Amino acid sequence: MRLSSSSSSTTGFNQVTREGDKKCLNSELWHACAGPLVSLPHVGSRVVYFPQGHSEQVAASTNKEVDAHFPNYPSLPPQLICQLHNVTMHADVETDEVCAQMTLQPLSQEDQKDAYLLPAELGTASKQPSNYFCKTLTASDTSTHGGFSVPRRAAEKVFPPLDYALTPPAQELIARDLHDNEWKFRHIFRGQPKRHLLTTGWSVFVSAKRLVAGDSVLFIWNEKNQLLLGIRRATRPQTVMPSSVLSSDSMHIGLLAAAAHAAATNSRFTIFYNPRASPSEFVIPLVKYIKAVYHTRVSVGMRFRMLFETEESSVRRCTQTDIACLWLSCNSLWFWVEWSFVPGISYSFLVDNFNFDSRYMGTITGISDLDPARWPNSYWRSVKVGWDESTAGERQPRVSLWEIEPLTTFPMYPSAFPLRLKRPWPSGLPSFHGLKDDDLSIN
Amino acid sequence: MRLSSSSSSTTGFNQVTREGDKKCLNSELWHACAGPLVSLPHVGSRVVYFPQGHSEQVAASTNKEVDAHFPNYPSLPPQLICQLHNVTMHADVETDEVCAQMTLQPLSQEDQKDAYLLPAELGTASKQPSNYFCKTLTASDTSTHGGFSVPRRAAEKVFPPLDYALTPPAQELIARDLHDNEWKFRHIFRGQPKRHLLTTGWSVFVSAKRLVAGDSVLFIWNEKNQLLLGIRRATRPQTVMPSSVLSSDSMHIGLLAAAAHAAATNSRFTIFYNPRASPSEFVIPLVKYIKAVYHTRVSVGMRFRMLFETEESSVRRCTQTDIACLWLSCNSLWFWVEWSFVPGISYSFLVDNFNFDSRYMGTITGISDLDPARWPNSYWRSVKVGWDESTAGERQPRVSLWEIEPLTTFPMYPSAFPLRLKRPWPSGLPSFHGLKDDDLSIN
DNA sequence: GTGTCGGCCGTCTGCCGACAA
DNA sequence: TTGTCGGCAGACGGCCGACAC
Questions:
Q1: CB contact under 8 A, A255 and B257
Q2: What span, in angstroms and rounded, lies between the C-alpha atoms of B57 and B344?
Q3: What is the mean pLDDT of residues A278-307?
Q4: Contact B428, B419 (CB under 8 A)
Q5: Interface probe, candidates A19, A105, A253, chain B, greatest B C-beta count within 10 A
Q6: A138 touches strand C (CB under 7 A)
Q7: How far apart are alpha carbons A327 and A37 in whole angstroms?
Q8: What's the main place this protein lives (chains A, B) (predicted)?
Q9: Coil, strand or helix: which one is B343?
Q10: Which residues contact B394 (CB under 8 A, 6 or more apart)?
Q11: Looking at chain B, which residue has its C-alpha nearest residue A21?
């Protein structure tokens, strides 16, 4: 992944710094491209950094597992409590893949003790924009033969209104991507039956971004009446190629040595978090860690639920009365939603491209160190789990405490407004409905 | 740079290993793409590894200089004498950029002492193929309007012979690139005046490799009657983007820590050498190091010559009688060539895309440590130089002893067959002629 | 409501020799 | 000897509604 532009998480859109070569990435768009499951800790907050998880991401990026005969860094604990000094959003200049650069400073021993006593920071704000849509591209969308078929409700909600008195109604749309590039599209409402289409300009975009059927595009209509445009590539197998800048061994040693040096001297160090390259969320808010580790009781045999992003969205039958629950975030506040399944009725819940169904439920089968020799007493992926369904083979057999939601205990997270699905949906919240309701979810 | 395929330097072409996913790169083609100035030490030989130079390459790849407040590795000397256990040639799957992966093992203290006593290995063999041509692409070559104009003598030497009885003479060429991909071209001899052209298939190649005017393509006709096809991209400014796998600081720490660990334990470590990404040749044959450091006398004021790769090839007038000299290599043997310039006559010497003229001559202005604080007593770029001509600004102000050829002393290198240009050129040697002679150099 | 197709037209690709550097 | 151009024919891009799921 090669980076071109960057932005501070606190700066706005389209602001070019005085250096001229560094652009600021739009935070809304970055989060939309990253997906609803990805959130970044707040600048200034305290976080927990897991060298193990970082190592996993590097291993995924280099396609190479950690070597056995490695130098040990006995002074480096499996988790470092750090102050998060800076978060910078990046996007790959070639692929638009998002990543975040974080500057961390390990807390001193005294500060670490205080960390557990001081009032915890609120959870991170996931900045999923409300006025947007995301569509997985079809073969027709990516073919050179035609344009892009815009889902009707999406076009009406996200695009500027057309003058339907015209025949046919049409306008020029200008959208900007993560790199602040401008893309122009002819938006037309025609055909029998009538439909929204992007024609002129669409194929240029598809070929420039090298989109293929299965990839997703998303449009955002933000508060400044700007149209933003992002992509999420389908997870294609074996796309990760080893880099040739540094050997994977040296990279592993480098991340460990850098963290160990920073921990020993309480100095700052910098990491890259590639949320879509690997599922290792190795920097998490301290409060999330404390809640999960010290305020949640888990035991073998306990049932849990976990959120995943999936490509498909098949409908399945519910075989038992069950509780579905979900964290939704809006403006720095977290909402806990729960409701009941009724046996025999088909359910499938979809927010954007993200599935929430019982394939992602399981049972805790054990709690132990993932790597007792190298990382004893680590909470990183300390929970062994069994998944309910046959797709379990694709799912990791180990998760971390803070990734799962135990179903038998009430959530310990600050629940500002517990909601039930049957209540009217507050406007401004991300839409989240069953299939029978109107929503903007595609597919 | 992301790698797909690899090969041992000792294996042949097109041999797929049993794993099935690792292909073997053709060594001839790799060296042709790397250029005549790039040579790799022999597997099994002893080499000198310079962490400083490695650090420079990483800095060039990450676009980031080394940070000031870095952890020190006082146990790591500025040069490590190593055994070279393995050399693997790679090529970037996206750009075809070549690089080499080397596995090094630092010698123990006793072995290091022996290294200076034992007979030195012969110099490395630069494997530039003899039967090949390289052409810099013109605007017409890369335009969609037409095909590729093949220089006549190149086509006649490198391509399989056409049947000139046919009208027009034509054939299908099949060439393989570094990744063993097959490219088919229609080779036709037509037009008025007659010329060799590649038509059908050429534009597919140009767009697949994303070639632009100024890039070079090269064809090799090897001993197995296979046609090989490589590219050398023009050095475009600012093409290097920082990677987001690991922070540049961590990469620097990683390479130092990996080398220090290997040196402390006499264990193997792995590095990547990107010859076209940066001019840091940080692994050199031990014999080259010993000759330069211990058997060559240099002093301030001394004149020297150094070889460079350039994009242009302008003819210039020689203003004084001068000695041109050059190392040529063939089958593990080095040849020293020298001849005299005559004032007032235009000279330009070109082997392939490589220029040898007096722009690359200079004077030694000082000898001192490049980084006295971090790397005291290092020979890496210890020679401060002044270049003769105005292009000096683009040239590095510091070079290493083994990169330059002092002009006032006879070379210390084993000179098997000192040649003069006026002698008949031995067949099998790389062609190297003045402009008035026939040769295969283009431009 | 939307994915894919046939139809149709216009642009661009790509092969040719002319011509000049 | 070879880089670029005009000419020309055919392929493909790309806009349209039809139709089916």
A1: no
A2: 41
A3: 86
A4: no
A5: A253
A6: yes
A7: 10
A8: nucleus
A9: coil
A10: none
A11: B238
Report yes or no on whether pTM surpasses 0.90: no
Helix (H) or strand (E) holding B308: none
- A259-268, A388-397, B79-88, B174-183, range with the lowest pLDDT: A388-397
| pLDDT at position B53 | 94
Give Cβ neighbours of residue B413 (< 8 Å, ≥ 6 apart): B123, B291, B327, B334, B336
Residues within 8 A of A (CB atoms), B 2-31 only: 2-4
CB contact under 8 A, B257 and A253: yes
Interface size between A and B, measured as CB pairs under 8 A: 128
**Residue with more model confidence, B77 or B276:** B77
Q: What are phi and psi for residue A249, nearest 5 degrees?
A: -60, -45
CA-based nearest residue in chain B for residue A270: B247
Quick check: A188 CB within 7 A of strand D?
yes
For B310-332, how does the pLDDT look when each residue is reduced to its tens digit (9 = 90+)? Answer: 543 323 222 233 333 344 333 33
Highest mean pLDDT among A188-202, A237-251, A315-329: A188-202
Structure tokens at B146: 């037409």
* Burial label, B97 (beta-carbon count in 10 A; 0-12, 13-18, 19+): buried
For residues A123 and A285, the answer to whether their CB atoms sit within 8 Å is yes
pLDDT score of A118: 52
User: Gap from A407 CA to D6 C1', in Å?
Assistant: 76
CA dihedral B133, B138, B142, B147 (to 10 degrees): -70
If you ran DSSP here, which 8-state letter would residue B213 be given?
Answer: B
State how far the Cα of B186 lies from the Cα of B209, in Å rounded to an integer. 18
- Give the closest of B4, B69, B261 to A241, CB-based: B4
| Protein residue closest via CA to C1' of D17 | A191
Element (H, E) at A335: strand A333-340
Report d(CA B182, CA B56) in Å as an integer. Answer: 36
Task: Using CA coordinates, name the residue in chain B closest to A92.
Answer: B244
Does residue B149 lie within 7 Å of nucleic acid chain D, judged by its CB? Answer: yes
Confidence of residue A195 (pLDDT cuts 50, 70, 90): very high
Residue of A nearest to B89 (CA): A244
- Grade residue B217 by pLDDT with cuts at 50, 70 and 90: very high
Residue B220: name the closest of B350, B31, B29 by CA.
B29
C1' of C1 to CA of A41 (Å): 40
For residue B280, the distance in angstroms to the closest alpha carbon of chain A comes to 13
Query: Which is nearest to A342 in space by CA: A438, A434, A440?
Result: A434
Q: Using DSSP, state whether A248 is helix, strand or coil.
A: helix
Residues A10-32 pLDDT 10s: 333 222 332 333 457 888 999 99
Q: Which residues in chain A are closer than 8 Å to B69, comparing Cβ atoms?
A: 267
Query: What's the CA gap between A161 and A205, in Å, rounded?
Result: 22
- By three-state DSSP, how is residue B260 classified? helix
pLDDT at residue A343, rounded to an integer: 37
Query: Among residues of chain B, what percentage have pLDDT more than 70?
Result: 67
- What ranges in A35-159 are assigned the alpha helix state H? 51-62, 109-115, 139-142, 152-158
Nearest to A181 by CA among A218, A228, A136: A228
Residues of B in contact with A71 (CB under 8 A): 257, 261
Query: Rounded CA gap, B360 and B392, in Å?
Result: 8
Q: What sign has the CA pseudo-torsion A210, A213, A215, A218? A: positive
Which bases in strand D are touched by protein, i.e. have an atom under 7 Å from a CB? 1-7, 12-20
Q: Per-residue pLDDT tens for B404-431?
A: 888 754 443 333 333 333 333 333 333 3
How distant is the Cα of A255 from the closest Cα of chain B, in angstroms? 5
* pLDDT tens for each residue of B91-109: 998 899 999 999 999 998 7
Contact B203, B147 (CB under 8 A): yes
Contacts of B90 in chain A (CB under 8 A): 244
Partner A contacted by B212 (CB < 8 A): no
